[in-house]
Design a protein that fits this description.
single chain; 392 residues; alpha/beta; TIM Barrel; eight-stranded parallel sheet; two-stranded antiparallel sheet; 14 helices
Length: 392
């Protein structure tokens, strides 16, 4: 009798465990499917590059990651409350209607700040050491806590000179961070495969390696690459043809769409017209566009021609009109950049720099936003944006 009871009890427990395991597997499958759902033209990714807090001198990506992990004094820091500024920035990004954040991890930036942060470059490249992976993994996790999806941009050796070690660098990062929080991986920055053979060679080695990776955990990720804003329509068309020839399996056409070719005080309709000329070319790929970078650079003091905040807003209105108000084809928009990208400690160093930052600074550790930021937020959060724009 005892043996029979024990056998029945074991059978009951086993079935319960099987049911529980099946439930867990089902839950994991659903979660994985949700994580892998990619943006579409009808539900595009609205993203922002997040590389700076308050100033490029002490609060850019590499230094912020170190200070979040080790404290405000890391990288010879002299400013308090980094964590508070970071959290408030993410809250502002979320409230402005962004659902994606673009994070750029670059060998070059580690190299720039190696003396300041005490990095040994042989622990950075070609394989990022565990202690640095822990710093990066924490930052990725903190961004994800705010319900933001992540586009991770990986950049290797300058001039694309070492694809083999760039692959090792990228692999070490992807195998060392929580990939469940990463929804798109961009390999290489400013790659111009149709303009420069050495860049095409790099891309043809690196991208297929990851698209067909031997580890299923990496092969299952979403990959694209970052390109540039092409100077003329012939270059843009050559780029489209190159991508379609060499990577017909891509689900999106990677695109950058900066535009600063019009004179100051041009209208948003002028910008819309100028952008449509390039959009018509990109449409020939018969793919939705993944706009990895767009934005507008304000003038610095050394320039004879001065572009103002009003010009930046006109560009943004024209950009959204061209891409979203008439026959939309865009699956992702990532604007450059959240934060204040000026030099705070020594403003004179900004004379030749390129101010794109959409925050004017911080007050009580909260972002002071620009009119351009408000325009982007209006686009992100208003379903009738196009109707309102056309009426103005």
């Amino acid at each position: 009798m005892k043996k029979t009871f024990f056998l029945l009890y074991k059978t009951f427990i086993y079935r319960q465990l099987l049911g529980y395991s099946a439930l867990l597997m089902c839950s994991f499958t659903v979660q994985s499917q949700e994580n892998n759902v990619l943006p579409s033209v009808s539900h595009p990714a609205k993203g922002v590059n997040f590389f700076y807090l308050n100033g490029r001198d002490q609060e850019d990506f590499v230094q912020v990651a170190e200070k979040l992990f080790f404290g405000d004094n890391a990288c010879k820091g002299i400013r308090a409350d980094i964590s508070e500024r970071f959290e408030n920035s993410l809250k502002e990004i979320k409230s402005a209607g962004f659902d994606w954040v673009r994070l750029l991890v670059s060998k070059d930036f580690y190299n720039i700040y190696a003396p300041r942060c005490g990095f040994s470059m042989d622990e950075i490249y070609p394989v990022l050491a565990d202690k640095h992976l822990s710093v990066l993994a924490q930052l990725v996790g903190k961004v994800a806590e705010h319900g933001l999806k992540i586009e991770l941009v990986l950049s290797g050796t300058r001039w694309f000179a070492d694809p083999r070690n760039d692959v090792r660098f990228f692999e070490s990062i992807l195998l060392g961070i929580p990939l469940e929080h990463v929804n798109m991986i961009i390999l290489g920055g400013d790659v111009q495969p149709s303009n420069a053979q050495y860049q095409a060679d790099w891309l043809l080695q690196v991208l297929p390696h990851f698209l067909n990776h031997k580890y299923s955990s990496l092969a299952s990720q979403n990959y694209l690459f970052d390109t540039v804003t092409y100077r003329n329509k012939d270059q843009a068309l050559a780029y489209v043809k190159w991508v379609k020839k060499h990577f017909p399996q891509l689900s999106y056409l990677p695109v950058n769409l900066y535009n600063r070719t019009l004179p100051p005080s041009s209208s948003w309709r002028d910008y819309s017209t100028a952008l449509k000329e390039f959009i018509a070319i990109y449409k020939q790929a018969n793919l939705p566009l993944w706009i990895d970078e767009y934005g507008f650079r304000l003038s610095n003091e050394s320039e004879s021609v001065q572009y103002t905040e009003a010009d930046r807003v006109a560009y943004l209105k024209g950009f959204y009109h061209a891409l979203s108000c008439e026959n939309p084809i865009t699956a992702a928009y990532f604007i450059w950049t959240a934060g204040n990208d000026r030099h705070v400690s020594f403003p004179d160093k900004d004379t030749d720099r390129t101010p794109f930052g959409l925050f004017r600074g911080y007050e009580n550790n909260k972002p002071i936003t620009t009119t351009a930021w408000d325009e982007v937020a209006l686009f992100n959060t208003t379903s009738s944006y196009c109707e309102q724009l056309i009426k103005d």
